[in-house]
Specification:
It contains five helices and five strands, in the order E-E-H-E-E-E-H-H-H-H. It is α+β, with helices and mostly antiparallel strands. It folds into two domains: 2-78, Ubiquitin-like (UB roll), CATH 3.10.20.30; 88-156, [2Fe-2S]-binding domain (DNA polymerase, domain 1), CATH 1.10.150.120. The protein has a five-stranded mixed beta sheet with strand order 2-1-5-3-4, with helices on one face. A hairpin with a 2-residue loop joins strand 3 and strand 4 (56-59). It starts with a strand and ends with a helix. The mean pLDDT is 96.
Amino acid sequence: MSARLSMTINGKPVTAEVASRTLLVDFLRDQLRLTGTHIGCDTAQCGACTIHIDGRAVKCCNMLALQADGTTITTIEGISAADGSMHPMQTAFRDHHGLQCGYCTPGMVMSAIDLVNNHPDPDDAEIRDGLDGNLCRCTGYHNIVKAVHAGAAAMKK
């Protein structure tokens, strides 16, 4: 059984037919080819699939695409400036070595942006708490925390 959905994704209107059981992450990756949203665990435990729905960070690997009907979605592909330059949080992750293999990075960046939007000057504990549920197997988190501090400062400018 399929159904029609409409939403705004990265500033563009999208209307599509989807099977009623299609997960949002699969819709984004497979139908729209927005592959920056990663699939890590399929149980909303690792955070690799984090996107913004109506301005809030949401893990989309266990959410049906139809549940997002009528929403505004931003994926990692949609946070860059119109001229293609990186979002300040992406730049901070790059400059402060907040990534290694990069698999968790899109979800970390999306969660970090949401955190800073709600807490513009987070301390280390708030950053660690705000990124709880986003797992990284490479960095040990120290550089991620530094990157979020730098990204928060750059987002104020």
